[in-house]
């Protein structure tokens, strides 16, 4: 079955507004702060990397 224009299956990046990015950044920071000691290091690094990307993107938009 073929995807219609605008579906998530179009393999396009999701475009987010500045407010959505700020909300996502706050959510990821809370998630990172609430992680237990036994959480995998790769998951921690993945979240830290996403936080850094969002901070850089939001810093560039100011």
What does this entry look like structurally?
The protein is an all-alpha fold. The protein has one domain (17-61). Helix content is 60%, strand content 0%. It has two helices and no strands. The longest helix is centred in the C-terminal third of the chain and has 21 residues, at 41-61. The N and C termini lie far apart (42 Å). The mean pLDDT is 86.
What descriptive keywords fit this protein?
extended; 62 residues; mainly alpha; 60% helix; 2 helices
Topology of helices and strands:
Layout: H1 18-33, H2 41-61
Percent helix, as a range, is: 55-70%
Derived from helix and strand composition plus strand pairing, the structural class reads mainly alpha
- Radius of gyration computed on alpha carbons: 15 Å
Number of E strands:
0
* Topology as a string of helices (H) and strands (E): HH
Number of helices: 2
Beta-strand content bin: under 5%
Low-confidence stretches: none
Q: Give the termini distance in whole angstroms.
A: 42 Å
Coarse morphology: extended
Overall number of structural domains: 1
- Major sheet: size, sense and barrel closure? none
State mean pLDDT (0 to 100 scale): 86
Summarize the structure.
With 62 residues, the chain is mainly α.
């Amino acid at each position: 079955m073929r995807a219609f224009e605008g579906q998530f299956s179009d393999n396009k990046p999701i475009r987010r507004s500045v407010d959505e990015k700020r909300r996502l950044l706050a959510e990821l920071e809370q998630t990172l702060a609430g992680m237990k000691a036994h959480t995998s290091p790769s998951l921690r690094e993945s979240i830290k990397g996403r936080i850094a990307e969002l901070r850089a993107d939001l810093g560039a938009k100011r």
